[in-house]
């Protein structure tokens, strides 16, 4: 036992038992606060415009604690750190440039990935291997091979994955899909998915390079990390400011912009979450002329990706046609149906339709806790993206393609098969 | 409309991507062709290249600026053409370029690379050793 000037363990414990311990009410769940033990801790990567909107939905949830942001751009790191610090009234949000530092945080349960498309699969897979659950913005992959790797990884590792295809939790889309799934439309004959309009996002991407500009310090913009697995090209600020869409190396093209949502909904409606069409026939060239890709499943069901000819209900139209009727809806929330189904059609406000992202985030969080699969799980997202990529390849080659969903390969078309994957820039690999 | 890069001799990306495999090979073998032109040629050869093109692509595996583009062209190529070129490069390269080649060998699941990878798992460069180990895990047939 120690003498004067120090305190014995026995005295310390005796004093502690006598002294009152003040525990914040929030720790005990008072006044509606969720105790820390019940909160899901979250980190974010590449949080830009869309990512910030999704993050706001996360921050609205009482059982989320956002702990760290990672970005190759200093400006964004600081902006998201400020957003989080203001929310919590402290300065605790960590800011990283290197995702390995974020992955190493054992106190972070899940990650919001909202980088450019080129990083989505690789970061999701690396995050899963680091023991994290993932909410990742769409499109979820750049190739057929990436789509498969994504689905296989999350299935094998048992991590929770939610693709940012929030329309699976949008009231009007859910209703329309349920009409198809429940048989109210009769035997389904055709599914129509609106692909990104050709005059805004041409289906074909370009291989151009912008002129080289002096590369900023990596502390400001880490160009090597921005490129990640993509082929090297000289730095130009335009890419980093968000104008990377339309370039082959960084973007899956116009078909995936909305197709990742609408084809996904079509597959869900038809019970095709574990497969893809076996035939793809492209028409038109987009940009100046309407385009479409006629696809067919093994059972004869048609899937039509097109960029025009819908009822003008907003963006991301879907339309399901069956022997007993049809339904069409889009982001505006309005649902149109065939005459015979009008008594069933609900009235869904634009406001309610606009809560899709909030609902989707809540779905993810509930599944992180319950370990059930969320609506836009990795297999469903992966298969829908495989269908979109196959359609995109058919469009690039300008010819009909046949596809075997069991092997993720095209039938008797070597060129198409070569386009199923892209070599990653070293040191990155899946 | 943004002004895009062009090669003084071979033109724009679209013009290069429209060439046949023989002309694309010519670009890779032309010492005056820019990095841009060679990069585009490799990306197009990924789709239209054949075993003849491998001879023009393989030397670029050692080029720090073009090594990945060379792998971009070789990784999806038919087995008999690309595998020997990648194995040969793996026996010569070091550092990050070697890691890239190992990664491509892994994607292609080349069983003839197993002995070479078996040696590289003991490479003093931990990145190389780790890449070789993961490649072996991918290529070795299940027990």
Can you walk me through this structure?
The complex is a heterodimer of chains A (430) and B (143). Chain A is an alpha/beta fold and 430 residues long. Chain A has a domain at 170-204 and 251-353 and 379-418: Dihydrodipicolinate Reductase, domain 2. Chain A is built from 14 helices and 15 strands. In chain A, helix 6 (144-157) packs antiparallel against helix 13 (378-397). The longest helix of chain A has 20 residues, at 378-397. The termini of chain A are far apart. Chain B has 2 domains: 1-77, no CATH class; 82-143, no CATH class. Chain B starts with 12 loop residues before the first helix and ends with a helix. With 143 residues, chain B is mostly helical. Chains A and B meet through helix 14 of A and helix 1, helix 3, helix 5, helix 7 and helix 9 of B.
Rg of chain A (CA only): 24 Å
Give the amount of beta strand of chain B, in percent: under 5%
Task: Report the β-strand fraction of chain A as a percent range.
Answer: 15-25%
CATH topology of the domain at 170-204 and 251-353 and 379-418 in chain A: Dihydrodipicolinate Reductase, domain 2
Work out the largest interface and the residue count of each chain. A-B, 27 and 37 residues
Portion in helices of chain A: 25-40%
Described by strand count, sense and barrel closure, the largest sheet of chain B is: none
Provide mean pLDDT of chain A, rounded: 92
Determine the number of helices of chain B (DSSP H or I, runs of at least 4 residues). 9
Largest sheet of chain A: 9 strands, mixed
Number of strands of chain B: 0
Q: What's the overall average pLDDT of chain B, rounded?
A: 95
Assigned CATH superfamily of the domain at 170-204 and 251-353 and 379-418 in chain A: Dihydrodipicolinate Reductase, domain 2
N to C succession of SSEs of chain A: HEHEHEHEHEHEHEHHHEEEEEEHHHEEH
Please name the CATH architecture of the domain at 170-204 and 251-353 and 379-418 in chain A: 2-Layer Sandwich
In CATH, what is the class of the domain at 170-204 and 251-353 and 379-418 in chain A? Alpha Beta
* Widest beta sheet: strand line-up of chain A: 13-12-11-7-10-9-8-14-15
Task: Measure the end-to-end span of chain A.
Answer: 58 Å
């Amino acid at each position: 036992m120690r003498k004067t000037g120090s305190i014995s363990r026995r005295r310390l414990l005796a004093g502690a038992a006598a002294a009152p311990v003040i525990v914040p009410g929030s720790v005990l769940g008072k006044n509606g606060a969720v105790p820390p033990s019940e909160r899901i801790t979250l980190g974010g990567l590449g949080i830009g415009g869309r990512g910030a909107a999704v993050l706001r939905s996360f921050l609205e949830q009482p059982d989320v604690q956002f702990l760290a942001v990672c970005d190759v751009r200093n400006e964004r790191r600081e902006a998201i750190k400020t957003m989080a610090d203001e929310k919590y009234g402290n300065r605790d949000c960590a800011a990283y440039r290197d995702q390995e530092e974020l992955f190493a945080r054992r106190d972070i349960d899940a990650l919001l990935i909202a980088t450019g498309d080129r990083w989505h699969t690789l970061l999701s897979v690396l995050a899963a291997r680091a023991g994290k659950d993932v909410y990742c913005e769409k499109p979820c992959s750049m190739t057929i091979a990436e789509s498969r790797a994504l689905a296989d990884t999350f299935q094998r590792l048992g991590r929770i994955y939610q693709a940012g295809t929030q329309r699976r939790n949008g009231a009007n889309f859910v209703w329309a899909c349920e009409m198809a799934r429940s048989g109210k439309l009769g035997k389904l004959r055709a599914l129509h998915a609106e692909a990104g309009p050709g005059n805004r996002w041409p289906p074909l991407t370009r291989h151009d390079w912008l002129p080289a500009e002096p590369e900023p310090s990596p502390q400001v913009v880490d160009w090597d990390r921005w490129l990640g697995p993509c082929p090297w090209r000289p730095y130009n600020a335009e890419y980093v400011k968000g104008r990377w869409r339309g370039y082959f190396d960084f973007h899956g093209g116009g078909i995936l912009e909305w197709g990742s949502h609408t084809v996904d909904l079509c597959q869900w409606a038809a019970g095709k979450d574990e497969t893809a069409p076996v035939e793809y026939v492209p028409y038109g060239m987009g940009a100046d002329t309407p385009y479409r890709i006629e696809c067919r499943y093994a059972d004869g069901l048609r899937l039509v990706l097109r960029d025009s000819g819908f009822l003008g209900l907003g963006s991301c139209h879907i339309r399901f046609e069956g022997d007993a009727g049809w339904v069409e809806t889009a982001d505006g929330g309005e649902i149109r149906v065939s005459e015979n189904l009008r008594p069933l059609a609900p009235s869904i406000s634009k406001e309610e339709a606009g809560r899709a992202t909030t609902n989707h985030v809540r779905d993810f969080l509930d599944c992180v806790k319950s370990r059930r699969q969320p609506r836009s799980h990795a297999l469903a997202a992966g298969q829908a993206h495989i269908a979109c990529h196959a359609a995109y390849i058919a469009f690039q080659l300008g010819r009909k393609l046949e596809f075997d969903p069991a092997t993720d390969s095209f039938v008797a078309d070597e060129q198409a098969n070569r386009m199923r994957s892209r070599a990653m820039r070293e040191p990155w690999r899946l | 409309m943004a002004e895009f890069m062009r090669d003084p001799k071979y033109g724009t990306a679209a013009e290069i991507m429209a060439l046949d495999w023989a002309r694309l090979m010519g670009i890779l073998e032309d010492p005056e062709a820019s990095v841009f032109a060679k990069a585009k040629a490799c990306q197009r050869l990924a789709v239209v290249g054949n075993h003849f093109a491998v001879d023009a692509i393989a030397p670029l595996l050692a080029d720090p600026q073009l090594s990945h583009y060379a792998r971009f062209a070789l990784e999806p190529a038919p087995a008999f053409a690309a595998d020997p070129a990648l194995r040969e490069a793996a026996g010569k390269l070091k550092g990050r370029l070697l890691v890239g080649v190992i990664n491509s060998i892994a994607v292609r699941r080349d069983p003839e690379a197993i002995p070479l990878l078996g040696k590289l798992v003991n490479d003093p460069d931990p990145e190389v050793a780790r890449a070789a180990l993961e490649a072996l895990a991918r290529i070795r047939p299940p027990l």
